[in-house]
Each structure stands twice: as C-alpha cells, then as structure tokens.
Amino acid sequence: ESQVRITKTNNEAMARGKIVLLAQFGWGQMEAYQKAVRQLVSDEARARHRKISDYVAHQQSVVTLCTALMGLHGHEVKARRAMRAAEREARLDLRNAMRLELLLEDGPLDGSLQ
Fold first, then answer.
1. For the CA atoms of the chain, what is the radius of gyration?
2. How many domains are contained in the chain?
3. Cys-Cys link to 93, which of 22, 41, 46, 52 (CB 3.0-4.6 A)?
C-alpha cells in the first residue's frame, strides 16, 4: 500500500517535470534532500508563469516524496525534520516569488522610478 502511494506521488511529481533523482544523494543524507528540495523551490520561484496554487501543490508533492523516500529507509525522524525545513523554505521562497512578481508587475527592475 505504501509503495502504491509512493509510486503515485512520484508519478505526479515526474509529470510536473521538476523532480530530481533524489536517490543519487544516498538515503541517510538529510542535507542533500533539503538542498534538492530548496533547488526545486528556487526553480519554481523563478517560473513566473506558474500559478501560485500550482506552485504550492507542486511543493507539497516534492515534500511528500522526500518524506516517503526517507521514511522507507528508516529515517522517519530525519524525514520529519527535512519536511519541516523544506516547508519553511517553500514558504519563504513563495513569499519572495510573490514579491518578485509584484515588482515585475510594477515595472522594470533597473531601479528607475516611474
């Protein structure tokens, strides 16, 4: 049952085209997972065409996948810590992305006043 859930989550993330191969970092390296999640968050923050709701849904699928992968290999505590850290990063980067989007709507980023 958990394998089906992980496969479903993985397929959803892959369908969005933004997931990296987390397995390449090794199962016990929480920092590597967090770095991968931060990179995904950062990539999403730069994709201004994506709706905010899609962004949030995508982040949830990435966090869920990271947690499921680490949980599978006996790292439940690390998985929970990584998930909380990833969620904090996602919230911060989402706020920054929304600020950037507002700035871009207001005009050029060259510092000139209109």
1. 16
2. 1
3. 41
Q: Which two tokens stand for residue 37?
A: 């999640």
Its pTM surpasses 0.90: no
Is 112 part of any domain? Answer: no
The tens digit of pLDDT for each residue in 21-39 reads: 444 444 455 566 666 666 6
Its domain, for residue 17, covers 2-100
Q: Quick check: 101 and 48 in contact, CB under 8 A?
A: yes
Q: Provide the residue type at 58 as one letter.
A: H
Surface-to-core class of residue 97, CB atoms within 10 Å of its CB (0-12 exposed, 13-18 middle, 19+ buried): buried
HEC secondary structure over 23-50: HHHCCCCHHHHHHHHHHHHHHHHHCCCC
